[in-house]
Each structure stands twice: as C-alpha cells, then as structure tokens.
Design goal:
The chain is 19% helix and 38% strand. The chain has 147 residues and is α+β, with helices and mostly antiparallel strands. It has one domain: Bacterial Protein-export protein SecB. Strands 1-4-3-2 form a 4-stranded antiparallel beta sheet. Strands 5-6 form a two-stranded antiparallel ribbon. The radius of gyration is 18 Å and the shape is elongated.
Length: 147
C-alpha cells in the first residue's frame, strides 16, 4: 500500500473584500437570518487555493451586515504535484472542505473584530457543515484542455 504524504500548506494571505454594517438595526431581532457562501479561486502557477467566504445578516427588508473575505492557502510544490491527474490538477473534496473549514474559522475572527461595540457583537455564527456546501472535487484542467 502506498504511503500518503501530508499536504503542506500555509495561510499566505487574508484579505477583506467587502464590509458593510448598517446604522439602523431593527428592534426585533427575531427576523434576522444568516446567509453564507463560498467560492474557490485558484492560482496554479503559485500553487494557491483561495476560498472566498461571505457572511450576510439580513432581515426581511434589508442587509444589515455583510463581510466577504478571502484566505489564500499556498501549497508546497510536492503537495501541489500530488494532486496532478491525467486531465489537470484534481483537488479532492475532502481537502477543499478542510480549507473551507479553516477559512470560515478565520473569517469568524474577522466578524468578531468588526462587530465589536456594535449591535451585532452578541450574535452567534452557528456551526456550518462544510459538507453541505462543498460537495465535489474540483478539476483545474491543464492549459489548453477543455474543462
């Protein structure tokens, strides 16, 4: 049986892309809902996988808070090469879920810092099951190959 080598990576960048918080919080908080989204971007040349996470608090009428931030994870060359496939670079769903979990945790920290001393400071971001959001491997085709 072939020995599995660890995937080595670092968080190489954390960047806030969008931030909005309203001045007009409603008295009734029962109607507030949290929306979450994730998009993966890749930089093949630099071996970067960058999930972008969005958290949005809204009620029936307005967006009250929105934060979009990106975590860039840079893999070492050997780890990136281990994902090579005959058609391109195949990133397994389990690794994408692991990076998404780490990115969400990092963005939670940004939410904590950005909502301090605001009416949203006591709001809790619930547990997010990344298996419900990230469901498939992603194939990055080699240049010139159809996806």
């Amino acid at each position: 049986m072939e020995e599995r080598k660890p995937i080595r990576f670092v968080i190489s960048k954390i960047e806030e892309e969008k931030f909005f918080i309203t001045d007009n919080f409603p008295e009734n908080r029962d109607s507030l809902k949290l929306g979450t989204g994730i998009v993966f971007n890749f930089n093949v040349a630099d071996h970067v996988i960058a999930p972008t996470i969005t958290f949005v608090y809204k009620n029936d009428e307005n967006v009250l808070f929105e934060l979009t931030a990106r975590c860039e994870f840079t893999l070492d060359t050997e780890s990136w090469e281990a994902f090579k496939d005959t058609k391109g670079t195949l990133i397994p769903v389990s690794f994408l879920q692991y990076l998404a979990f780490n990115a969400i945790s990092t963005i939670r920290g940004i939410v904590f810092c950005r909502t301090r001393n605001t009416p949203l400071a006591d709001f809790v971001i619930p547990m997010i099951n990344v298996e419900n959001i990230v469901k498939e491997n992603i194939l990055i085709p080699f240049a010139g190959q159809p996806s």
